[in-house]
TrEMBL record:
The keyword Calcium does not apply. Keywords: DNA-binding. Residues 1-12 have a biased composition (Basic residues). It comes from Streptomyces lonegramiae. This is Cas12f1-like TNB domain-containing protein.
């Protein structure tokens, strides 16, 4: 993601340089260039020609630009780069939507079609963490979860954070106050220690509603959570201590995949029966073109996109 963001910023700077070079009369000199021009004028030297001015756009007294941006002359290279940037942005948005749908299907396949999430204002998250939050797209994931739950016959229910306060409670029912910086849960009453997010996710299973359509009617069933803690104490503590950070994937390198060397007289037993494409020491099947193969089975709980 860091590499993609760096490329996107580079494309934006290239477009800005192209616009400034084509419409040099609409921009002023930068502070550094203006100081150099003043020194050259004092020494009686000729002013240097600046092809790409780095100053502000010339504006009127009311602050509006003298010439509208739509009237700027654009080069063919600028139009081509702008089209490529728009295509890249569209493909990136589609990739994020597909990733949100994939993660939503995996969550529903593991935890069922009835889920409880906190009723949070994602706009406040953007105020706290800025544009970095767009790389994870939490709002898109919640929308995908709602669609997948409805398609699987369940429902995505929202619980108010004021009435439940999942991150400020323990499974035993005691309230454990934590700041946003505290990511570990330590209860002084029962001694439960675990990850803050995992403890909140476990408590979400014990949220009850007086009215399912109203998130403010949600409350935490501490008796049920305490009973579950006593029944599954050892397994629950081990599960809550696991890290929520995904393990880093090994870096992908360019080149061919390493395949063990085989003899010419024998075929590959691991790949001959799993794919229709022939290995280097096998003959190509005659009926491979145009023959419909069996489709993999899909779970009835998952929707098709």
């Amino acid at each position: 993601m860091e590499k993609q963001a760096k490329k996107r910023r580079g494309r934006g700077r290239a477009l800005e340089r192209s616009r400034r070079a084509t419409n040099a009369a609409q921009y002023g000199l930068s502070k550094k260039r203006a100081a150099r021009a003043a020194r050259r004028a004092e020494n009686g030297l000729k002013p240097k020609m600046v092809t790409v001015p780095g100053g502000d756009r010339t504006a009127r007294a009311d602050g509006l630009p003298q010439q509208a941006f739509r009237r700027d002359r654009l080069s063919a290279h600028y139009r081509e780069q702008r089209a490529r940037q728009a295509e890249y942005a569209a493909s990136l948005a589609e990739h994020r939507r597909d990733r949100a749908r994939t993660v939503a299907r995996e969550i529903i396949a593991a935890h069922g079609p009835v889920l409880v999430v906190e009723d949070c204002d994602i706009r406040m998250w953007y105020r706290l963490w800025g544009k970095r939050l767009s790389q994870t797209t939490p709002g898109m994931l919640i929308s995908a979860l709602a669609v997948e739950c409805d398609a699987a016959g369940g429902r995505l229910v929202r619980a108010s954070t004021w009435s439940t306060a999942l991150s400020q409670h323990c499974l035993c029912g005691e309230r454990v106050n934590k700041t946003l910086r505290d990511r570990a849960h330590k209860c002084g009453a029962c001694g439960l220690v675990g990850k803050r997010d995992l403890v909140s996710a476990a408590l979400a299973a014990f949220v009850r509603f007086a009215d399912v359509d109203d998130p403010k009617t949600a409350y935490l069933d501490t008796a049920a959570s305490r009973h579950a803690q006593i029944t599954c104490s050892q397994a629950l503590e081990e599960a809550l201590r696991k890290s929520t950070t995904p393990s880093p994937k090994p870096p992908r390198r360019s080149g061919r995949v390493a395949v063990p060397r085989q003899h010419r007289e024998t075929s590959a037993p691991r790949t001959a029966g799993r794919r229709n494409r022939a290995t280097p020491d096998e003959s190509r099947p005659r009926d491979h073109a145009g023959k419909p193969g069996p489709r993999p089975g899909r779970s009835p709980q998952l929707t098709l996109w």
